[in-house]
Specification:
Layout: E1 24-28, H1 32-41, E2 46-50, E3 62-67, E4 70-75, E5 81-82, H2 87-96, E6 100-102, E7 107-111, E8 116-119, H3 123-126, H4 136-157, H5 166-172, H6 177-192, H7 196-200, H8 204-213, E9 225-228, H9 233-241, E10 246-247, E11 254-258, E12 261-266, E13 269-273, E14 275-278, H10 282-289, H11 295-301, E15 305-314, E16 330-334, E17 344-349, H12 350-353, E18 363-366, E19 377-387, H13 390-398, E20 408-410, H14 420-433, H15 439-450, H16 456-466
Parallel strand pairs: 1-2, 1-14, 2-10, 7-16, 14-20
Antiparallel strand pairs: 3-4, 5-9, 6-9, 7-8, 11-12, 12-13, 15-18, 15-19, 16-17, 17-18
Helix pairs in contact: 1-14, 2-16, 4-6, 4-8, 10-11, 11-13
Bound molecules: flavin-adenine dinucleotide.
Flavin-adenine dinucleotide binds next to helix 1, helix 10 and helix 14.
Length: 467
Amino acid sequence: MKMGEIPHGMGLRANPAGGEQAMRIAVVGAGVAGLGSAWLLSRQHNVTLFEAGSYLGGHANTVDVTLDGVTHPVDTGFLVFNRRTYPNLCGLFRELGVPVAKSEMSFAVSLKEPHIEWAGTDLLSLFAQRSNLGRSAFWGMLSDIFRFNRETTLLAREHAAPDISLGEYLDRHNYGEAFRYWYLVPMAAAIWSCPTQQMLAYPVSTFLRFCHNHGLLQIFDRPLWMTVEGGSRAYVQRIAASLPDVRLSSPVLNVERSAGGVSVVSRHGTERFDAIIFACHSDQALRILDGQASQLERAVLGAINYQHNRAVLHTDTRLLPRRERVWAAWNYMAGEGAADRRPVSVSYLLNRLQPTPFKTPLVLSLNPFEEPVADKLIRSFEYEHPVFDQAAIDAQAHLPMLQGRNRTWFCGAWTGYGFHEDGLKSAMDVAAMMGVVAPWRARRLALASTGHVADAQEIAGLQEMSA
Ligand SMILES: Cc1cc2nc3c(=O)[nH]c(=O)nc-3n(C[C@H](O)[C@H](O)[C@H](O)COP(=O)(O)OP(=O)(O)OC[C@H]3O[C@@H](n4cnc5c(N)ncnc54)[C@H](O)[C@@H]3O)c2cc1C
């Protein structure tokens, strides 16, 4: 069974598509997946949204920062998206009237051993460290970048990538150490927020599919990256304002499923629902289901591991490349040690990623291997990222078999590549299987079936979304 097909034997008492009785639905978790599914389903059903934390948004986490005498919101989790590969997020933002602004997708590498610094912003940043001009390994890296983009674009287009890990692929095709450790692994580890070794173990086919779709295998015609003006809370608040029953600081503790309904235990007591959507991470869902999980649920949800990431918000420029000319929006930093074992971190220069009024550089460092000095530390945050190894990818393929069984549904960024679009798309899929189609998807379907379009703006929007 594929995503989008309605499974049989759901045992639900009403089919909303037929205009029958509205269901009571519990949604567990208020990240983009939980907010998206609650927002869609509350159009036809009575939805209660349970969130364990004290704020809505999960990884969409905006905080107010005061610097240079000004207070302004900045994001500490989800930061950027683009029109090409986030069509549904763009559809949602358009629907909600969320203001967006241009972002910058520049990338810098700063290694301690050997001391190498470069950024792809322009020629000046590429050779800001003059000695790079005379380093044959550096020129080899640049040549490998072109070769890799050329070779793997073909593989991705033709779905011909071999069934091996990224590391094996690089070995097999004789890619140099410099290409591997001064470019590809830093870039990938920064995007997936995971350690070097984990990235090398990533299945090359999935890696290439993602990079190809996101324009990362091309030097030119890359997507234009955007950010939410005023921080991602701007969209979270708009969704929250339309939801009648939102419970903050209310972790779902336990769930009992039976033929007659679902009992949900939280600090509000035990409440009965017709269906439950787990929009938290897969390991959290498994813990809530506890001994209740079916064998298949245990196999699928239990196959996905999570990587803990600490994000530190600060103004300590020691956690940026030494040369200011090299500073980019994303700065991959690595400490001393063997290439595949050295401590690594990513520092986002938020002033470049989001419109801020700050002159002082504001940095979000993921897993900094050096702590910012105390008087430059603003706050720190703890996040978990799914790890997409082969076991996780195999498990994802079985997810559709779980949907709707035992009145239970699952969504979250963990069901895709781990990004915001994946979280929203999985929520839309669950809502569609329960009879509610997202308005922008419904318009696209209507357009396809009738050829009738409301207005020019809609045509432009749809073309943009399907680009
Ligand atoms: C630092 C960082 C930067 C990122 N940058 C980007 C980016 O620029 N672009 C991009 O596309 N993606 C980015 N991502 C990834 C993306 O934001 C996330 O993968 C996505 O937002 C996850 O959404 P989700 O709804 O699946 O999960 P989450 O946002 O994690 O939401 C799950 C929610 O479930 C709640 N919960 C857990 N257990 C329970 C329980 N028992 N009861 C009730 N609630 C519970 C949690 O508190 C949480 O709020 C970034 C992530 C991080 C951490």
